[in-house]
Amino acid sequence: MAHLNIFAGNPLDRAGDLRNDPEWLAEQADKPYAQAMVLWEGRPLIEDSADGPRLTWLSMAHARDMVRDRELFLGLWKDEPVFAVEFEGSIDPAEGPVRGIGAFHEMRAAAAILSASEAAMAGGAKSLFDWRRRHGFCANCGTLTQTASGGWKRVCPACGTEHFPRVDPVTIMLPVYKGGPEPICLLGRQAAWPQGRMSALAGFLEPGESIEEACAREVKEEAGLTVIDTAYHSSQPWPFPSQLMIGLIAEVSDNQAQPDQTELESVGWLTRAEARAVLAGEHPTIQAPPPFAIAHSLIKTWAEEA
Question: Is Metal-binding among the key words of this record (predicted)?
Fold first, then answer.
C-alpha cells in the first residue's frame, strides 16, 4: 500500500474458511504453540521489552485459565493459531490475574507506542469484542444469540438468522482550494477536542450514497463549500468501535468556508508551509491530529507535495 495507516497491515492469515469448522477451531486452541493477546474492556495488555513496548502474549491454555467464554480466533501467524481473550468489569486485571506481566492501555494510547502490525491486531480484536458486546440479541426476533466461527459470527438459535460484524464507512477529507495565489487546505475544529486541535472533515456514509456523494454532502453541511473533484488517498480501520475511514483529497470551488456551528465550531485555511508547521508542532495556535490518525496522513501528503 502506498500509505499504510496505523490499524491497517494486519499480518495474520484470517483463515476465513477454516474458522467455520468447529472441530478445526478446537484443534487450533489446543495446539501447544497457540497464543492469545489479552484485553480488558477494549484495552490491550502491553509489556516493556528491550525493543520497546509490545503486546503481551500468553499461551492459550494460560489465557483460558483466566478468562472463560470471552475468546476470539484472530487467525494464523506463520501457521500458528492466534487468539484474543478479554476481561470485563471495572477492576483492573493487572492488579490481579495478570499482575506483573504488563499494563492495560487505552487503544489510542496503545496505537502511539505499538508497532504497526501489533496495533492492527489489537485494533481488530477490540472491534470484534465491541461488536459482540453490543449485538448479543437477534435483531430479527430478540433471542440471545450464540457465538460461531471463532467469534466472527453470531447465530440465533430460534430463527436461524446469522449476524456478522458490521463496519461503518466514514469519508474523511481534506478540502483544498487551488484558485488563489497558492493552494490552501481547510481544517476544522470540534468543540470537544483539546485546545487548539484541528483536523480534516469527516462524516458517515448514508444508505444509497457513494463515497464521492458523501464527501460532497459532508463538506457542504459542515463548511458550506462545494466539492468539484475528489482523489482517493488511503483507508484506515478505526476501532472506535468499528469504522473504516476512507481518506480523500477534496478540491472545492471557493474559499468562503463557514463552520456550521453544529459539527464544527471553527475552520481555518492553511498554506502548505503553514500545514508543515502544524505537523511539526511549530504553529502558534493550531495542533495537528495525532500521527496515528489518517487525518494526519492526509495533511502530510498534501503539505509535502511539490
Answer: yes
